[in-house]
Amino acid sequence: MSSAASQTPAAGDRSHARATVAAATVVVVGASALAAAWGMELIGGLPPCHLCLLQRVPYYVGLPVAAAVGLGAWRGLPLGWLRLGLALVALAMLATAGIAGYHAGVEWRWWPGPSDCSGPALAPFGSVTDLMAQMQSAHVVRCDEPALVLFGLSLAGWNALLSLALAMVALRGALARPA
């Protein structure tokens, strides 16, 4: 066969097995991270800020792609397609790692965060009267104050590390050579 895209799995092909394991790892660990975030929000009462919600978006994109890659590897999809899918998953995990790293930097006051959740309170309002009206009707969760710190890292910091690890898993699966 002349191209990687046309390769189909042979008996015991380690490349397909690695793609399956990589995809399954991303799905299980990523879904667990999302479940923990939703659990802390819905059960633990920790409302997410704007950046916390933004960190979830790449998971919502990457996890279905990872599930499709795992299913495709199991069903014998050509290796080129599996690699492409895992590369897309790695990009999604790198995106959430970037957002999480930015968020952690905002929490540590290394740089300013978005004005809608960490800037001066009067910025989006025309007057103090408008501000008072908004304050009575809405609760803004600040992006520059960590909701929870575990072992010296905020949840954003932990998400950055976890997302980088998942990106590495996906890349390793994408770069696996045929046996």
UniProtKB/TrEMBL annotation:
GO terms for molecular function: protein-disulfide reductase activity. It comes from the Bacteria. The chain crosses the membrane at residues 21-39, 59-77, 84-104, 147-171. GO terms for biological process: protein folding. One of its GO terms (cellular component) is membrane. It is a multi-pass membrane protein. It is found in: Membrane. Coiled coil: none annotated. Keywords: Membrane, Transmembrane, Transmembrane helix. Pfam families: DsbB. This is Disulfide bond formation protein DsbB. The lineage of its organism: Bacteria, Pseudomonadati, Pseudomonadota, Alphaproteobacteria, Hyphomicrobiales.
